[in-house]
Inverse folding.
């Protein structure tokens, strides 16, 4: 835990499935060291003054994201950032997708959760390389964490990288990871007005997967209405309606992946 | 709460610039925060207070300019102010709009001494 700001980002850990040891990484960049004034400044300025900065606050993350993007491009890695509320079915969707496509599309997975190796352990059963990031108190992944994670994973050329973000429909919206496509997953048990309640996330996504359609007979969820709301927020969105457990609708998602991951 | 990481980035950028300038403390930090930036101002203020402790910016104030959001209609080219992502064009009622302004999250200036 960082005692300068108490943010807890220093508790971010990176672990491969089956490995006991883990690495600590500082997910955020801090400049605390520079703030310890052991050295003396030459105090030529004593007046109050204003320094113009005009800098994007997320600029550093955006820059690191662009570095990741360049790396992915050079290696022809198709990177996907999956975001959703907790429990929408991101891991189930990945398990199913990898089980079906891993021979055709060499893949790797980065799992983001605040705690536990559970999701990485589930993915590892498919035989696909996976790295778990535990963000501790952190509510989202950032570009620096992804950079550390793919360094550990040693990505193959001509492959796909699936990043499962921390289950949270708010915070991950602001943090570009360098992905090619951002996929927001919503399940039919969540209410069809989710896009209206969390517009920032839908605005920042390219693809919207409506999952758990096998449950449609049991819940009040109007798929068309949900799509209409989502399009009101972001008219570029592309939709897939699937059930990750029964496999219904997954074929079109697989075809989309095969078309986009040029491996 | 991503406002915590945002607050940390603000302090980090501000302190770096203040040090470059040889300042001994920061009294105020000025931001532009767009209406559609995804940042809650209350939450940011709260995080800021805890993050600035022990830095050059300890006891500084945060001045936030809220930037209104504007969009242009893809169908009729009308430009207008909006207050959410799901606004529709007041002229032709289309939802196909491009957001021109309102996503800002910018550190404008730092007052030091
Ligand atoms: N009926 C049904 N259940 C599903 C479907 N997809 C996932 N589930 C169930 O939903 C629950 C949560 O699924 P996960 O895949 O763990 O969800 P997640 O989005 O990865 O969750 P977090 O990582 O905690 O955010 C599990 O009990 C899954 O079996 C589906 O298509 N239909
Ligand atoms: Mg999961
Ligand atoms: Zn810290
Ligand atoms: Zn957050
Ligand atoms: Zn119009």
């Amino acid at each position: 835990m960082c005692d300068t700001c108490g943010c807890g980002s220093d508790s971010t850990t990176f672990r491969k499935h089956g490995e006991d040891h883990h690495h600590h990484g500082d997910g955020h960049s801090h400049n605390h060291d520079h703030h310890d004034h052991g050295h003396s400044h030459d105090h030529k300025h004593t007046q109050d003054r204003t320094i113009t900065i005009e800098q994007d606050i997320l600029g550093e993350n955006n820059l690191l994201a662009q570095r990741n993007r360049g790396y992915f491009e050079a290696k022809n890695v198709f990177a996907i950032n999956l975001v959703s509320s907790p429990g929408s079915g991101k891991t189930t969707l990945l398990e199913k997708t990898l089980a079906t496509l891993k021979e055709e599309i060499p893949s790797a997975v980065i799992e983001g959760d605040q705690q536990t190796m559970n999701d990485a352990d589930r993915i590892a059963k498919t035989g696909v390389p996976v790295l778990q990031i535990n963000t501790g108190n952190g509510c989202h992944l950032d570009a620096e964490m992804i950079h550390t994670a793919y360094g550990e994973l040693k990505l193959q050329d001509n492959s796909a990288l699936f990043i499962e973000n921390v289950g949270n429909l708010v915070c991950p919206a602001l943090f570009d990871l360098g992905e090619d496509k951002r996929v927001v997953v919503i399940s039919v048990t969540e209410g069809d007005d989710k896009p209206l309640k969390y517009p920032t996330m839908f605005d920042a996504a390219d693809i919207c997967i409506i999952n758990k359609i096998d449950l449609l007979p049991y819940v009040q969820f109007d798929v068309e209405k949900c799509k209409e709301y989502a399009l009101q927020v972001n008219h570029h969105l592309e939709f897939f309606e699937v059930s990750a457990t029964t496999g219904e609708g997954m074929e079109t998602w697989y075809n989309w992946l095969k078309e986009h991951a040029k491996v | 709460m991503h406002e915590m990481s945002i607050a940390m980035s603000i302090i980090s950028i501000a302190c770096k610039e203040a040090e470059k300038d040889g300042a001994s403390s920061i009294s105020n930090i000025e931001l532009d925060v767009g209406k559609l930036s995804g940042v809650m101002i209350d939450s940011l203020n709260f995080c800021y207070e805890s993050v600035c402790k022990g830095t050059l910016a300890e006891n500084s104030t945060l001045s936030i300019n809220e930037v209104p959001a504007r969009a242009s209609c893809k169908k009729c080219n009308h430009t207008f102010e909006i207050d959410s992502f799901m606004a529709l064009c007041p002229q032709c009622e289309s939802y196909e709009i491009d957001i021109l302004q309102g996503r800002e999250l910018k550190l404008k200036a730092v007052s030091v001494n």
The radius of gyration of chain A is 20 Å.
